[in-house]
UniProtKB/TrEMBL annotation:
Its EC number is 1.-.-.-. One of its GO terms (molecular function) is oxidoreductase activity. The keyword Oxidoreductase applies. Residues 13-288 form the Luciferase-like domain. It holds the Pfam family Bac_luciferase. This is TIGR03557 family F420-dependent LLM class oxidoreductase. PANTHER family: 5,10-METHYLENETETRAHYDROMETHANOPTERIN REDUCTASE, PTHR43244. Keywords: Oxidoreductase.
């Protein structure tokens, strides 16, 4: 099992995100993953730096820790040819420490180019084509591809790492898990649902299984819950809502019913190690082995110290 840290690019500016990657390395995390957004979810976040710029800086500012996107959508806002080039460059700059997380995206970020937001069926077909394009470009040489939705014409990525980055595919259902098994090197989930990992394994997937574990550390449970509600109440809406709303104003309206107690129940809140262990164990029991901890608490440096001294050693004792 590997323990990672989720860099919340919607909640902090680019310079702070790079600093947090350095602190995560010092605290003993195995990897960091960072969201690839154009907009934040809520008014209380107010950031959304360019992921590839931040990853390039992280690659130079760290030495050991693995880097990942969690996750990139390569079908509308970013063409897969550009994603292939960007990911290869980060792979080179990081000395092979980069993992490319891919998914079918959210309207929140993809609608900004004005080309429309396809149905989930079409998005998955586009994602399949995008993965094929990225794989093809990573083979080297000039490449062309003509799909139903996506095309490349005589394109070549010149700077490639010695080994292609691992490609991990996000899933919220059985079809996406099957796609991850067919074309990816691993699975990425955000909910502790064993059926997602089971569908991946049943379809032949044998790679790592990534998950995001929602926690909020503070000196008291109430302080942690209030902070989590301020920054992360949108997560209680569920993926079928989260993928479809276009802007923070819509998430503010949709999440207006979410209470502090609802967030407290869903996340590990406060200084109690065993409560955080309980939440993390759900993801281990679901079959996940690469766990990215999200801290929605008010003091990130206090969380890093808590992880290094107490939480990290305790979590590394857990077993499936």
């Amino acid at each position: 099992m590997k323990l990672g840290f989720k860099l919340i690019a919607e909640g902090y500016g680019p310079t702070e995100i790079v600093r947090q990657a350095q602190e995560a390395e010092r605290a003993g995390f195995d990897f960091v993953e960072v969201s690839d957004h154009y907009h934040p979810w809520l008014y209380s976040q107010q950031h959304s730096g360019h992921v590839w710029s931040m990853l390039g800086a992280m690659a130079q500012a760290t030495e050991r820790i693995e880097l990942a996107t969690g996750v990139t959508c390569p079908i509308i806002r970013q063409h897969p040819a550009i994603v292939a080039q960007a990911a290869a460059t980060v792979g080179v700059l990081s000395g092979g420490r980069f993992t490319l997380g891919l998914g079918a995206g959210e309207r929140l970020n993809e609608h900004v180019t004005g080309v429309g937001w396809p149905s989930v069926t079409v998005r998955h077909e586009m994602l399949r084509e995008a993965i094929q394009i990225i794989r093809q470009l990573w083979e080297g040489g000039y490449q062309s591809y003509e799909g139903k939705y996506l095309t490349i014409d005589d394109a070549r990525v010149f700077d490639l790492p010695e080994e292609s980055p691992r490609m991990v595919i996000a899933s919220g259902g059985a079809k996406a898990s099957s796609l991850a098994a067919q074309l990816g090197d691993g699975l990425f989930v955000t909910e502790p649902k064993p059926e997602l990992v089971d569908a991946y394994r049943d379809a032949g997937g044998d790679g790592p299984t990534y998950a995001e574990v929602p926690l909020s550390y503070a000196g008291s449970e109430d302080e942690a819950a209030e902070s989590a509600h301020r920054l992360f109440r949108f997560g209680q809406l569920g993926w079928k809502v989260m993928s479809e709303l276009p802007n923070p104003i819509n998430f503010e309206a949709a999440a207006s019913w979410v209470t502090v107690d609802a967030v407290r129940e869903a996340m590990g809140c406060g200084p109690d190690i065993e409560r955080h262990v309980e939440v993390t164990q759900q993801f281990i029991d679901a079959g996940c082995d690469h766990l990215a901890l999200i801290n929605a608490g008010p003091d990130m440096d206090a969380f890093f110290a808590f992880f290094a001294d107490d939480l990290g050693p305790r979590l590394r004792e857990l077993e499936a």
